[in-house]
Amino acid sequence: MTAAPTAARALADWAVALRFEDLHSGVRHAVCRHLLDGVGNAVGGRRLGLVAPARAVAEGLGGPPEARVLTGTNAISAPAAALATGALVHALDFDDTHGQALVHATSVVLPTALAVGQQTRATGAQVVTAAAAGLETACRIGAAVPHGFHARGIHATAAVGPLAASVTAGLLLGLGADTIVDALGVAGSSSGGLLEFLDTGADTKTLHPGTASMAGIVATRLAAAGARGPDSVLEGRRGLWATLTDATPDVAVVTGGLGERWEATRIGIKPYPSCQLMHVSLDALAALLGEVGGVEVGTVARIEVHVHPDSIPIVCEQRDGGRPRSTYDAKFDLAWSVAALLIDGAVTVDTYTDASIARPEVAALAQRVEVVERSAPVPAADAGGDVRVVLSDGTTHRGTVASSRGTAATPLSDDELVRKLVRNTGDHPDAVQLGEEVLGLAEAPSLDRLLELAAHCAIPRP
Hints:
CATH 3.30.1330.120; 49% helix
């Protein structure tokens, strides 16, 4: 009896056979929407001067002039460009998330597609096709073990990212299936990404997509040069899932329905620049405030937030005095973010600044937030939200939502997505044009115009 192909082999065979014409219009549009979201987040990160170390190191690595960093003008090596671009896309923690995989798929696929796409002078259609395969790879590998990486203290994006990047790069380089299998095997040895930042307030997580993108491109080059990688990199007894998770993988999630069931169409786009696991609680509170017309902070006795048990270790750690340890730490502090929303009426990029997290009134209200564990038969990122504001006179206001905005169940419209881009650019007059360029990327002869507009929109205006 012939053994079934490994998951890596199934992915590689499918990806190499994939053609732009195989992508139905919904898939093409979804891919371009996620590329647009990633571009906008990178422009926002660059405009605010974030991830400067990653950008400096990328420039220092230099190399042959193969690709520009997104928002940059100087051509460096493709792996170095992907390092900086990946960090920029994830800098605001405003990038998309696949609910079941809990993976920021675009943050590793976009940097790879742009860097290698420039290197190979790819057309827009070629970039969209490679990105579709990369997004599918990232989502499926993560979705086979829902919350499995995070439960072991591993950032899922950094775990699956090198493999997704290797598929994306391999297609743009025109490699065969055997070489892409080797690239996947090599890339798996670069997987990792510790969540230890949650206990310190550090921002190492912002670097993970960049290092994953770079590792995936390097793995692909190594495979093309003859390096061998294990085809059992995913399901092997010392493979990715066995080593970095405690979960039993559902391999069929990776191999089943390739080209028919598109996980890339089920990636959520964030309306808030914070950890996706708290979004449903923010939406529930926003619904409450919209119904009652606001709440006087001084009358609040406590705020009950019902939270999925898998979310609690990530976003519900108690902070001394209610104040986050850093601006990035605040993005993973549900109590503080809930308090900020109740006080400000909105959660935006400006919510997570040094001045904002220093506000004593927000810290004081955050100490009145109580987390109630609430199980659900779905992954944490797809669970419903329930928030109750109890006033000092005993009055209770309740807000509930079935799912968070931006997820596959409640997607943002194209207009909302473009408005997010415009805000990320600081209302740059060319932002809408940039959005149109990315949404229409499949028709573009190259990436040149996209890169020019992104660099222009990233320049801070007086």
